[in-house]
């Protein structure tokens, strides 16, 4: 998904290939409350192994306003990619359900904007089984709720020309300029145009059992969305994918996967340590076959033709957890967050075999974690998710600064995140719509 040479030439011609110097103007943070909504269409493009079950609970969108006058759209928050693209039409949707989802997210018509610039470049962006052909433009993006003074000027993004199995536009918030791209992506522009003090942001998806409560905060953190300290981990450099060094992703070292059955002690699976990607754009988590086999045994699951672990829906009501350990931190994902109803009366464990060489912790894990992604210092911070209100603040800049922030929520006694074995928080889910609030220091 690297930018093709045509865009590189266009950027060079207009002097935009390098990151714009950071503008000093009392940067703060952008808070996007997450509203959960069910979807009509099938599992997202990243979920290439799932073809027959409808996904009913986990797509995460946020609202942006593009152009002059501003046009309202909702786009998927995707930590697994790094480019922004939007839909100009829904006429080429693969199914009626996808067309309905596309229409609900809003459309962007470049010809209706007086500030659009044609970059005269195209690209093809693959997402698992989904793919989109885009034409690059630059236009203004207004930050909802902030007034005209908080408008990102001439942000480069793609306008979809043709797509397959992708119902929504996507806002990739992965590593951009200097990592995977030759131009500023959305994260770069929010920082370089002085809205935030760093290229860091926090994500709490919110429990799938409630209608709201999650948040995406660029340049900030909410201390009432997690319990205990934020544990600091290295954002690992590009790993070997498909036999060669891959792109920059949010790789983190996972030390073990295990399970805590109802009324039993936690047990870790043998040889379950591996580097893994944190990806909000994936409905499921994708793990090595040996771990999937262990989960199938512990859940007494039936394995579908697609490799999914089908279980009795009553299992989701039990008090067990699937446990993910990173150093001294264990995130314990409750059964009710890790199991979802994929079709009426049919429930599926939220993990499937990884089909390639990029294992992923998707929404079935991230619903129970609070995550801070710090691109500037190549760090990732984790804590157990817990919602006890809202108390947002600016993330301090500098290496390791977020490690000094402590969550204000009380650890629950039921299965959830834990520090070295003690029970703690959990939860998160659904499709997301967002309105932005800007906070300055």
UniProtKB/TrEMBL annotation:
GO biological process, one term: proteolysis
GO terms for MF: aspartic-type endopeptidase activity
Annotated PROSITE patterns: ASP_PROTEASE, PEPTIDASE_A1
Keywords, comma-separated and alphabetical: Aspartyl protease, Disulfide bond, Hydrolase, Protease, Signal
Keyword Transmembrane helix: no
Coiled-coil features, chain-numbered ranges: none
Active site residues of this protein: 78, 279
Cysteine disulfide partners in this protein: 313-347
InterPro entries: Aspartic_peptidase_A1 (IPR001461), Aspartic_peptidase_AS (IPR001969), PEPTIDASE_A1 (IPR033121), Peptidase_aspartic_dom_sf (IPR021109)
Family annotation (Pfam families): Asp
Protein's UniProt keywords contain Signal: yes
Sequence ranges assigned to domain Peptidase A1 in this UniProt record: 60-383
Signal peptide per UniProt: 1-17
Protein family: Belongs to the peptidase A1 family.
Protein's UniProt name: Acid protease
């Amino acid at each position: 998904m690297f930018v093709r040479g045509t865009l590189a030439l266009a950027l060079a011609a207009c002097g935009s290939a390098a990151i714009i110097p950071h503008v000093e103007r009392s940067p703060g943070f952008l808070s996007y409350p997450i509203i959960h909504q069910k979807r009509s269409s099938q599992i997202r493009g990243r979920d290439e192994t799932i073809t027959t079950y409808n996904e009913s609970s986990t797509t995460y969108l946020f609202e942006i306003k593009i152009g002059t006058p501003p046009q309202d759209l909702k786009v998927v928050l995707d930590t697994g990619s790094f480019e922004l693209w939007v839909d100009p039409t829904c006429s080429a949707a693969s199914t009626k359900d996808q067309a309905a989802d596309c229409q609900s997210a809003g459309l962007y018509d470049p010809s209706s904007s007086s500030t659009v610039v044609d970059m005269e470049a195209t690209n093809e962006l693959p997402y698992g089984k989904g793919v989109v052909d885009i034409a690059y433009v630059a236009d203004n993006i207004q930050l909802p709720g902030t007034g005209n003074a908080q408008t990102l000027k001439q942000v480069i993004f793609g306008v979809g020309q043709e797509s397959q199995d992708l119902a929504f536009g996507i806002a990739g918030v992965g590593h951009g300029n200097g990592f995977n791209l030759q131009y500023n992506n959305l994260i770069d522009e929010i920082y370089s145009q002085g809205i935030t003090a760093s290229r860091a942001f926090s994500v709490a998806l919110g429990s799938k059992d409630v209608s709201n409560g999650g948040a995406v905060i660029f340049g900030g953190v909410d201390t009432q969305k997690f319990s205990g300290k934020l544990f600091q981990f290295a954002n690992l450099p590009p790993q070997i994918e498909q036999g060669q060094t891959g792109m920059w992703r949010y790789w983190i070292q996972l030390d073990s996967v295990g399970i805590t059955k109802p009324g039993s002690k936690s047990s870790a699976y043998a040889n379950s340590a591996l580097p893994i990607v944190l990806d909000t754009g994936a409905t499921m988590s994708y793990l090595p076959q040996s771990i999937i086999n262990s989960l199938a045994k512990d859940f007494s699951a039936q394995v579908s033709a697609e490799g999914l672990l089908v279980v009795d829906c009553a299992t989701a009501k039990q008090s067990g957890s699937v446990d993910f350990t990173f150093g001294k931190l264990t995130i314990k994902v409750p059964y009710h967050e890790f199991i979802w109803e994929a079709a009426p009366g049919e429930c599926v464990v939220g993990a499937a075999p990884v089909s390639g060489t990029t294992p992923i912790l998707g929404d079935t894990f991230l619903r129970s974690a609070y995550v801070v992604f710090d691109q500037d210092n190549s760090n990732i911070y984790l804590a157990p998710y817990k919602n006890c209100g809202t108390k947002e603040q600016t993330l301090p800049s500098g290496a390791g600064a977020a490690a000094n922030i402590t969550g204000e929520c009380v650890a629950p006694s039921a299965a959830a995140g834990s520090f070295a074995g003690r029970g703690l928080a959990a939860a998160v889910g659904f499709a997301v719509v967002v309105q932005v609030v800007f906070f300055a220091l």
